[in-house]
Records
---
Amino acid sequence: MSSEQSTTAERGRRKVRTGVVVSDKMDKTVLIRIDRQVRHRVYGKIVKRSSKLAAHDETNDAHVGDTVRVVETRPLSKSKRWRVVEIVERAK
C-alpha cells in the first residue's frame, strides 16, 4: 500500500453532500441547504427535513440557486467545516 492510500485510510472517508446555495453574500463562503426525506416515527409519513451548512468557496464562483457538491474538511472558521468541490448545476 502506498503512503497516499494509507493516509486516506487513516483519515477515513470524507463526507460528501449535495445541496442548493441559499446565500452567497459572504466573501469566499456560501450557505448551502441540504434537503432530505425521512419517515415520521409515529405516523410513517415521509416528511422533508433540511439543514444549512457554511461552505468555503475559494473563487466566489457559486451563486444563489446553484446546486453544488461539498466535501467535509478541517475547520476553516467557527462555522465552516465544508468546502465546495464542484458546481453540479447552475441556477436558471
---
Amino acid sequence: MKSVLITYDQAHQDNVMDALDASNVRGYTILEQAGGRGTKTGVPHLGSHAWPSMNSAIITMVEDAQVTPLLNRLHQLDIDNPLLGLRAFVWNIEQCI
C-alpha cells in the first residue's frame, strides 16, 4: 500500500478529482487552503494581498497497482497546464487499520 500526497493550484480541483475517479481511488482527504511555493519556477500561493492564489492538497492511500496510473494522469495534467503547478509524492505505508 502507498500514500500519495497531491499538491496543486486550486484551479486544478475538478481535474484532480477526475484523475482520482479514473484511477478508481475512492478514499482521500482534501486539505483546502494550503499555502506554498514551487521549488523551481513557482510563484507563492499564500492567500495574501500580494500572492492571492492558494493551493489545495489531497492525501490518499492506494494499492500499489493504482499508483502508476494515477501519477500518469496527474503528470499529464501538469504538462497540459504548466503555469498552475501540481506535484505528487508517494510513500510506502507500513500498516493501515
